Each structure stands twice: as C-alpha cells, then as structure tokens.
Amino acid sequence: MRPPDELTAEERLMDPFPWYETMRETEPVRYDESRDCWDVFRYDDVKRALSDYETFTSTGASDFDPNGNLGTLLIDENPPEHDRLRGVVEEYFQPGNLEELRPSIRSIVDDRLDRALEDGREIDVIGELTAPVTVLTISRLLGVPEDDWDLVRQWSGAMTGDEAGRDAIMEGVGKMYEYFGNLLDERRQNPESDLISVIAGSEADDEPTLSPSEQRAFCVFLFLAGHSTTTHAVGNALWTLEETGEYERLRDGELDRRTVFDEVLRYRGPVQSISGRRTAEAVELSGTEIPEGERIVSWIGSANRDPDVFDDPDQFCPDRRPNRHIAFGFGPHYCLGAPLAKLEGDIILDAVTDRVERLEVNEGPSEPVELATSYGFDRLPMTFHPHN
Ligand code: HEM
C-alpha cells in the first residue's frame, strides 16, 4: 500500500514522528479517501487492531501477497487455520534452538567485518554487512546449500527497491518458488536437521499438516519476511548509536545489547505500519465508528511513541526498561522470527563492539527506503575505526 500523502515529502521519509504525534492527538482514527483505508495511531487501538482477529480479520486482507500469488500464508489467516500453519515451525524458532546458530552467524559477521576493516575504508552498512548477514542467516536456517547462497542473494537483491522493481520482485518470487519446491522434494526423500526438512516432513504424518504448495509458500515467505526487516533494524541500530553518541557506552559494556536493540526497535522500528487487516463488523475505536469491510492501517511506529505508554517517547533511552514496544506486532501474528531477529542484532552488535573503536556515519548519499511499511536505509555509508 502506498504511503499517505502527508508522508511523501522527502523530509518526512526519515521523520514521520511529528505527524504521528499530531494524528494521535487530533485524529487518532481517520478515514483516508485517497487510499481508501482507516489509519489508526494510538497504542491501545493498534494493539487491538492487530490482536482482535474476530473484529479485525486477516483473512482476505493481505498486505504481503495482495494477489494471492504465493498461496495460503499464515500471515493471511485467522486462528484456528493460522495456528495449524504456524504450529509446524513454531518450536524451531524457540530462542534455545536458535542459540545453536550463534557460532555460524558470528563467523558470517566476522568475515564481513574483516573486509570492512581493511584500510579503514568506507562500508555501506546495509549492502555489505546487514543485508548479506541476514540473507545468509535465513538461508542457513532454512537449509539452503552453501553453493546456492549467491543465487538466493541475487534474487533477494533484485527484490529490494521501489515500485519500479515490482516486476523484478515477482520474477524473483517465481524463481524462489520453483527453487524451494525442488529443495522440499529433495528433503522429503533425504531429511536433514534443517527447517526445510521440518516443513517437508509436515505431510509425512498420518494427517498431512501442510500441502506441498503450502510448504513452498511457507519457505518463500519465511525467506522474505526474515530478511529486509532485520537488515533495516540493525542498520537503524548502528546509525542511532552513532547519532546519539551512545556507541561508546555500548562498546565499554555499560549498556546491555539486548536492551539497546529493543529500544532501537521502539524508536526506529523497521516496520512502521501494517495494513493486513479488515473490519469483519462495524467497530468503534477512540470514539470513531468504522464500518464493516474496511481496510485498517495500524501505525506501529506511532504506537511505539505514544506518551500514554512511554515516558519521553521521542527520546532514545538505551537502557529503557520495561519496554512494551510492539515493533514485532501483537497477538496471534506476533512475529515468528522475533527471537531470530534479536539473536542477529545481538551477534552483530557484539562483533562490532568487539572490533570497532569508533563509528562514523559518512557524508554522502544514504538512501532511505520508501516509507509505506519500512523504515531504514537501502544504503548507509559508514567508516568503522578498528581498536588499536
Ligand atoms: C527486526 C526484525 C523484524 C521485525 C521488526 C518484524 C516485524 C513483524 C511484525 C510487525 C509482524 C506482525 C505482522 C502482522 O500482525 O500482520 C511480523 C510477523 C512475522 N514475521 Fe517478522 N519481523 C522481523 C523479523 C523477522 C524474521 C527474522 C523472521 C524470520 C523468518 C520473521 C518472520 C515473520 C513471520 C513468519 C511472521 C508472521 C507470523 C504469523 O502470522 O503468525 N520476521 N513480523
């Protein structure tokens, strides 16, 4: 969905927050005729829209796959159908399981940092660090053979970009669909200990859990959902730490990495809005009546700055605790990959602080992504000064 007119001006791309504040105060729930949807800005209302699936249904309200090209996806279903799909992989995503990936993710990060620290040259933090690390991590988790990593990186590279890249996105999705179909067939015959084998094995029980086309869709969706969000989140973390001068305290062990990353997600979360809900019946939110059958856009980025919930909401507080942010959503669709994203954030910040004395955001073209759902950079040039 395209951004509201108020956010299309260049200077609003990276600073939508004053607009959110005005909207929370003056029009917390409003109908936007030009986009034919209802925008919701307050924390309690956003939480309700994301979690009360009987009133705000996900079925037929796809944000991710509006034309249904991918097939049945968990993000587009309500419980109990949603729970059937999610149940297949839920256990795999538990933090304890994922922790086993730490050494292999760390070695991917170290390899990238080796190159970035050569001669103290400029590094595009997104293109050379966070994007490759998140693509390779989700590839490893799924069980994509290492020989194919370049291939999947090319597809995912072709898939980032603006409207002009739509055809490339669909072409990339088509290729991935075919690729994962073949890999699933292979793992059905010869299961391994990876996520693709878990998904491929889900029909081996007496009662099949996922059909073959659902299995393919699941793999493609996991790959796409797990990649650009985390890429932008970690980029936003390094940018914010440099900008606020808090990097030194993190480097010196005075701040907790996970608390810092949580605050980045609240303050500059990569997903600012979710438009995958429709009203299943008429409902009142913050005194405004919304009719049945309307599309709802839930502004997570605004909810996370709501002063009714957060003290000094426009302040980056790297030791904020508790932090009730909803950057990963809320309710049944709460981000399945949240533990993985947090692990990746932790490993990258750990590796950078181990090896880098000082960060510098360079002058020159950093490229903000278009603000519809995403917030962050497609390109972020920085210099990393190594420890002596
Ligand atoms: C910082 C990084 C990330 C952020 C901010 C983020 C944010 C979100 C949000 C807001 C939702 C809820 C969508 C809704 O309610 O409609 C969601 C769902 C989801 N995310 Fe993430 N995500 C991140 C990383 C990941 C990763 C690494 C994966 C890994 C595969 C992933 C997989 C998913 C899946 C599968 C869902 C759908 C869950 C369901 O419908 O039950 N995400 N994410």
UniProtKB/TrEMBL annotation:
Pfam families, per database record: p450
GO terms assigned for molecular function: metal ion binding; monooxygenase activity
Domain of life: Archaea
Keywords associated with the record: Heme, Iron, Metal-binding, Monooxygenase, Oxidoreductase
Family listed: Belongs to the cytochrome P450 family.
Record-given protein name: Cytochrome P450
Organism: Halalkalicoccus tibetensis
